[in-house]
Amino acid sequence: MLQHPVPYRHPDGSVHYTHCDGEYDARLDAGAQVCIAGPERRRHGRLRLFGLSFGIATAAFWGVMLLSPPSTHARNTPARLIRCLTAAGEVTPWFEREIRRRANLGNAAFERGGFKLMLLDYQFAQGQCAAGRVDAAVQSYRRLTKRVAALSQRDEPDER
User: Fold this and answer.
1) How far apart are CA 7 and CA 30, in angstroms?
2) Of 40, 44, 62, 129, which sits 20 to 30 A from 153 (CA to CA)?
3) Are 95 and 103 spatial neighbours (Cβ–Cβ below 8 Å)?
C-alpha cells in the first residue's frame, strides 16, 4: 500500500526513502517475481478451466443424446386422424399434379373450371383435419373426390 515516503536508515548509516511501511526484505522481490509471472499462469489456468468446462458440457450433451435421443412425433398420429388422412390421400395427388400443371400454363388457368373454388375447399378440408374435426373433413374430402372424378370424366371421355 502506497503511503508518504518513509526514510529507512541502513546499519551503515545511509538513508533511502521508501513508500512501503517497514523494512525492505529481499524475500519480497522473490514474491514480486512470482506475482509478475502470475498473470501468464492465470491465463493458462483460465484456458484449462474453459477446456474442462467445455469438455464436461460436450460429454453431458452426448450422454443425453445417446440415452434419450430426440424423437419425431410424425409417426405418433392419433388414431382418430387416420380416416382424415386416408380421405385426403385420395385427392391430394390430383391437386398436387393439377397445381403444377396450371402453374406452368399461367395465371388464367387457375380461373378455368372452378379450380380456385376447389382449391379453397381442399384447403378448408385440410384445416378441418388439422383442427380435429374429422367427420366434417372426411365429408369435405368425399365431396372433392366426386368433383375431381366429374372433372376427369368431362376432360377425358371414355373411348369406345
Assistant:
1) 23
2) 129
3) no
